């Protein structure tokens, strides 16, 4: 069980690095300069990623320096609507699930507060979300959101910048990127609050060159039950597996044949 779980995470890390290299190669080939990079057909990148991993979500977060902020906001305003529409058309074949109300769009890098999304404070660096799959449900407010305005996310970005070429795994966090009815297909027990973590991997300015500047990060998901689905023969039932991380979190699953059910959940002291 442990080997299977580690193998699943390793596959996800490899898949993320492949997508990061594809993005870097595209930007290099088309002489685009970060953070002002347009990634056409991002949803096609995402589909390939999902096929080679057990991930449910992936997003690109451009790293924007403070002195680039004004120019980047103009750039994102020029392309944001196109990014979101294109992803919806590739994934769904229509725009039926897209809220196209322009009044909801924030034309600047934002931070999330209890009262909603507001213009982010001045910082040395912003991690501005651009493309994501499943696609955003509206042109705003999460487009251009500075993920590092959330303290624990900022720690992940700092770790990626410090480690240079390593993928960083978060603590368990709420996961709401997928519509509920679509998310049900990924898990045995669709009603459970399944533990998910997020992986961040660096996007470098040059392909296969970890010494080159980190210009963006890729975020993807790890659902802890994914590595235990379809693992045992149908006749093997009732095995309890306890999964722990270094953040003091502990989750128990019951694995029966091809199924994996969230059995119990508690925090370690």
Overview of this structure, please?
The chain is of the alpha+beta class and 269 residues long. The chain has helices at 2-29, 42-51, 69-92, 151-163, 180-183, and strands at residues 58-65, 110-113, 116-119, 125-133, 168-169, 196-204, 214-223, 239-244, 249-256, 259-267. The protein has five helices and ten strands, in the order ααβαβββαβαβββββ. Helix 1 (2-29) runs antiparallel to helix 2 (42-51). It starts with a helix and ends with a strand. The model has no long low-confidence stretch (mean pLDDT 87).
Primary descriptors:
five-stranded antiparallel sheet, Beta-Lactamase, three-stranded antiparallel sheet, about 270 residues
Q: Low-confidence parts, pLDDT < 50 over ≥5 residues?
A: none
The overall number of domains is 1
How does the overall form come out from the CA principal axes? globular
Annotated CATH topology: Beta-Lactamase
Strand order of the largest sheet: 4-1-7-6-5
Name of the top-level CATH class: Alpha Beta
The topology string of helices and strands comes to HHEHEEEHEHEEEEE
Estimate the helix proportion, in percent: 25-40%
Tally of strands: 10
Tally the helices.
Answer: 5
User: What gap, in angstroms, lies between the N and C termini?
Assistant: 25 Å
CATH architecture, by name, is 2-Layer Sandwich
Largest sheet: 5 strands, antiparallel
Radius of gyration, whole Å: 19 Å
Strand content: 25-35%
